[in-house]
Write a structure and sequence with these properties.
Radius of gyration: 20 Å
Largest sheet: 9 strands, mixed
Shape: globular
Strand content: 15-25%
Structural class: alpha/beta
Low-confidence stretches: 12-17, 256-273, 283-323
Helix content: 25-40%
Number of strands: 11
Number of helices: 9
């Protein structure tokens, strides 16, 4: 199962950061380390704008910031489905396609509020010590077979990315007939192993559950399993039936200043940063190129700092999808 993350900009800060710096929020771990090295650092070198790192991404926190009018995050790495909903709910600022060259973006992964940044996958991960030889899990159905594969299993707490699809595949729904999702059928399937599920909320927690043996099998972000392997832990990874998801960076509603508008932009001529990001974070094949680009942000919202100068501009991240 493969996914695409998005980059989005969050809305309405009473106190925006200095125009010469911005705050980028992501999920932590090896992904954010790679984003810092291959996106933020080159961007700072080119633009002079410091990129401060924060995280992990927290949707409840974004909503609370916007409602309080005290947004501290500028660009946030989010899941694609959340970005679409958050834009409609007023939590993200619309992108300025007068600054962003839409022709350079894959139209499948562009919305009014966020653009694709990279793909990742939900894959089956397991501890080989628990499941050896031919008794290793190979399909989504195996995740739900507690007789053949005993022990706790772990799934991402938020059902939309991956878990619903995994349950339906395990219940015999052909991959090309998954959508629209049959939620009743999916939850009925999940109920069959309800007492054996441990829900993880973040990548670090998922790694800990697997490494400790508390949950020797489950559905994980592929990069987190690769990181465990790199640290020397034996980890079994089964890619069959992987579910790809999209991530999109977006801009918080309310981080304002006079001048142009924050933009997410994608440039196909900058391949080095993308390749480094892909290789270091051990992402899926066909990772899209990511680039950082300058942009500006239009002063559409009333919450402006008096100390902003008209010529001060902010720079935005550009995400590019495919992985």
């Amino acid at each position: 199962m493969k996914s695409l993350l998005a980059v989005a900009f969050v809305a309405m800060a009473a106190s925006a950061a200095n125009a010469q710096q911005m705050v980028f929020t992501s999920w932590g771990g090896t992904t954010q380390d790679a984003q810092t090295e291959f996106w933020a650092a080159p961007f700072t070198e080119k633009s002079g704008t410091a990129v401060l790192q924060d995280g992990p991404t927290d949707y409840g926190k974004i909503k609370a910031m916007v409602e309080a009018g005290a947004v501290a995050w500028d660009v946030v790495d989010t899941e694609f489905d959340w970005a679409l909903q958050a834009g409609k709910a007023g939590l993200l600022e619309p992108l300025d396609f007068g600054v962003i060259d839409k022709a350079k973006l894959d139209p499948r992964f562009v919305s009014d509020y966020a653009v694709g940044s990279f793909y990742y996958s939900f894959v089956i991960g397991f501890n080989p010590a628990n499941f050896s030889g031919e008794a290793q899990p190979q399909t989504m159905a195996d995740l739900f077979d507690t007789a053949k594969f005993p022990g706790k299993r772990t799934f991402y707490k938020w059902s939309a990315p991956g878990v619903i699809e995994a349950a339906l595949l395990a219940d015999g729904v052909p991959a090309n007939q998954l959508y629209p999702l049959d939620l009743d059928r999916a939850f009925k399937k999940l109920d069959t192993i309800k007492s054996s599920i441990i829900w993880w909320e973040g990548g670090a927690q998922s790694q800990q559950l697997l490494a400790s043996g508390e949950a020797p099998i489950g559905l994980f972000w592929n990069g987190r399993l690769a990181a465990l392997q790199a640290d020397g832990m034996p980890v079994g990874i089964e890619l069959a039936g992987q579910h790809h998801r999209r991530r999109r960076p977006g801009r918080s509603q309310g981080r304002q200043e006079q001048g142009g508008r924050h933009g997410l932009h994608r440039r196909g001529d900058q391949r080095q940063g993308t390749g480094g990001f892909r290789d270091q974070d051990r992402l899926c094949p066909d990772q899209p190129r990511l680039a950082l680009a300058d942009g500006g942000r239009s002063a559409r919202h009333p919450a402006r700092r008096a100390d902003r100068q008209p010529d001060q501009r902010r720079h935005g991240l550009l995400g590019r999808a495919s992985r």
